[in-house]
Amino acid sequence: MELVLAADPMCSWCYGFGKQMELLLERRPDASLKIVLGGLRAGATDVLDDAGKQFRLRHWAKVEEASGVSFNREGLLARTGFVYDTEPVCRAVVTARILRPEADLLKVFRAFQHAFYVGALDTTNSLVLAEVGSRALEELGHPVSVDEFLETYKKQSTIDEAATDFATSRVMGVSSFPTLFLKKDGTLRRVGAGYAHVDELEKHLAAMAA
């Protein structure tokens, strides 16, 4: 079974969905997963103001209620001059994929989510991203130095590959994140869009596989 997940590490519903996705893969050990980075706010230049913070806090409350994940609200409120650009963190996931294609990319993806939503780290800062990515890969048994991660992250080819992911998600018809697909007979079939519990995903997959 081949699954394709379109998602963005700085999408709060994707953060809430992460555990359900891990549970699904535990139940389906025969399944492979490809992650297409969404670029939810790639290239954004607007600074996160108080209204933007309150907007996100309302969303976070809904995600927390639905999924049980925790958020560092104080970390968000304390941010000053923060530009909510998701291209850097998406590119960091792509960097990990390039450097260690054999690593569990979902766990790397979730490490970046945790860094942003719980650690309140600046996931638009290249050095921060390299440190998080290097640590995540080392914990998975695929060590990469911070310097090597940073070098690959800054390459034009990595920037281009991230942009290709963003374009691919649009071609796939993704209008919200996360969106999960089943690839069957060379065709992508939508399993679900938005947050869903693992039991619901299983139900949909069973019907589609049949």
Automatic annotation (TrEMBL):
<protein>
    <recommendedName>
        <fullName>DsbA family protein</fullName>
    </recommendedName>
</protein>
<dbReference type="InterPro" id="IPR036249">
    <property type="entry name" value="Thioredoxin-like_sf"/>
</dbReference>
